[in-house]
Amino acid sequence: MKVLAIDTSNAALGVALVEGSVVKGEILTNIKKDHSTRLMPAVQLLLENCQVTPQELDLIVVAKGPGSYTGVRIGVTVAKTLAWSLNIPIVGVSSLEVLAANGHYFNGLICPLFDARRGQIYTGLYRYHGNQLECVESDRIVLSSGWAQWLREKQEPVLFLGGDVALHQDILTGVLGSLAVFGPPALQLPRPSELAFLGMNRTSEDVHSFVPNYVRLAEAEVNWLARQKEQESHGN
Amino acid sequence: MNKDVYVLGIETSCDETAAAIVKNGKEIMANVVASQIESHKRFGGVVPEVASRHHVEQITLVIEKAMHEANLSFAELDAIAVTQGPGLVGALLIGVNAAKALAFAHQLPLVAVHHIAGHIYANRLVTEMKFPLLALVVSGGHTELVYMKEHGSFEVIGETRDDAAGEAYDKVARALRLPYPGGPHIDRLAHEGRATLDLPRAWLEDGSYDFSFSGLKSAVINTLHNAEQRGETIEIQDMAASFQESVIDVLVTKTIKAAQEYHVRQVLLAGGVAANRGLRTALEQKMAELQEVELVIPPLSLCTDNAAMIAAAGTILFAHGKRSELSLNADPGLELE
Ligand SMILES: [Zn+2]
């Protein structure tokens, strides 16, 4: 089974080709340069080097967010177009879960995070049971300070993962002290091969209705809903 | 020998997700448009983030529908044409990336198309183009006069320096408290009223084919405001008629003048504002006075944003050897050249 994995949901751009239990190839860059120009050339280079044609692919796995709205849309658009036109299944995996997968062998909670500006982070909580990564707390957007307080209650070591961890490191160590553990740089980037393995045994989704998990509504939608609510309360 | 050429077009520059298949640059095999207008009406205009989200929801559905209607497989296509710009960047990105994925998956040539070139080539789906020609492109995002001496050659001889005509319509409609999109409402009201109000016409420098509508828009708002201050009422129909007359006067006069100066054989009207009855009528009347110049106005479905026009323009560019790489990016400020 040949799996193509695509992740452009945050600063890193990653594509991987996994066949069965073997990582055939992986391209991973972390240079905050526009994903739109580089994603398809990366996919092309990867498949050419691995001597695999698009028609030989069996599954597309994509990181579906949270992350940059534009970034995640690029990955999802390419993934769903490839899956649909090649007539193969598509699986979406949380971008945070991909990052959490780097925490193999860590005995404690794994907390992946992406900066969401104004002191906020996209985060969730995961834990390995043997080889199996499990989600303990679902993905969300929170203030890193409040999240750190809440984690402290758990009285367990927490491994923080993600390229944006440095932005919140002072807050996290300030609250959690020695319970806060930070991975080395190589583990701070989401690995597209981990994405492929995470998606490989999941039930596929309907390709046409497949969309990113933005976590947040568009700002205009939020304002519109607030106005609707206001009008309703005035109407009564 | 002369094999038929089938091009798939994809267009997502604003609030329509569209895919179409055109045969030999002239014959529509399928033309699918998923409009988001109902969603954006809630906000009184197109919200870029919301538009991008809708495009992701619709993109594969729309392409699938087009392929089914044309009854073609990817192996039977000759090229994929996609709008590269101008437009909303987040929206353009969906079409561009979908097109690149398809081109890669099925080893098909990729051709980037300028949105305005698309609008102009919508005419080729109606009648053969006769060169040299002049195209007046008027929409919510554009007001341009484009001269073409031959296929694939575009010279912008005039463009708006501020608001597009369609944008001015929407802003004036808002000032008149008409629902979005305001253009059709103003057109309708204009026919019920009389152009009794004195509004400016921006002719700009002598010999310029450029346009400017922001002064006119401000004049409308000031006139309404002043009347309100004095406790006078302005009939909304008369304001609509006066505004529309001013816009059309400038558009038609400059188009006729350019048609004469450039000795064109054809004048094409393109873009969503081509639906405006006032503009159509005025252009038809004035054009009738010109000798041996044909006026072409495509049906409304080809004037508003669609992908058949992108496929039609892409077919010509493809024949001229234009190819795009997989590194193709959306360009919201793309120049027509
Ligand atoms: Zn347009």
TrEMBL record, chain A:
Residues 32-224 form the Gcp-like domain. The keyword Transferase applies. It holds the Pfam family TsaD. Its EC number is 2.3.1.234. Keywords: Acyltransferase, Transferase. It is an enzyme of class 2 (transferase). GO terms for molecular function: tRNA N(6)-L-threonylcarbamoyladenine synthase activity. NCBIfam families: T6A_YeaZ (TIGR03725). This is tRNA (Adenosine(37)-N6)-threonylcarbamoyltransferase complex dimerization subunit type 1 TsaB. It comes from Anoxybacteroides rupiense. The gene is tsaB.
TrEMBL record, chain B:
Binds 1 Fe(2+) ion per subunit. Substrate binds at V137, V138, S139, G140, G141, D170, G183, D187, N276. Its EC number is 2.3.1.234. GO terms for biological process: tRNA threonylcarbamoyladenosine modification. It is found in: Cytoplasm. Keywords: Acyltransferase, Cytoplasm, Iron, Metal-binding, Transferase, tRNA processing. GO terms for cellular component: cytoplasm. Its cofactor is Fe(2+). GO terms for molecular function: iron ion binding; tRNA N(6)-L-threonylcarbamoyladenine synthase activity. It is an enzyme of class 2 (transferase). Pfam families: TsaD. Fe cation binds at H115, H119, D305. Signal peptide: none annotated. The keyword DNA-binding does not apply. Belongs to the KAE1 / TsaD family. Required for the formation of a threonylcarbamoyl group on adenosine at position 37 (t(6)A37) in tRNAs that read codons beginning with adenine. Is involved in the transfer of the threonylcarbamoyl moiety of threonylcarbamoyl-AMP (TC-AMP) to the N6 group of A37, together with TsaE and TsaB. TsaD likely plays a direct catalytic role in this reaction. PANTHER family: TRNA N6-ADENOSINE THREONYLCARBAMOYLTRANSFERASE (PTHR11735), TRNA N6-ADENOSINE THREONYLCARBAMOYLTRANSFERASE, MITOCHONDRIAL (PTHR11735:SF6). This is tRNA N6-adenosine threonylcarbamoyltransferase. The gene is tsaD.
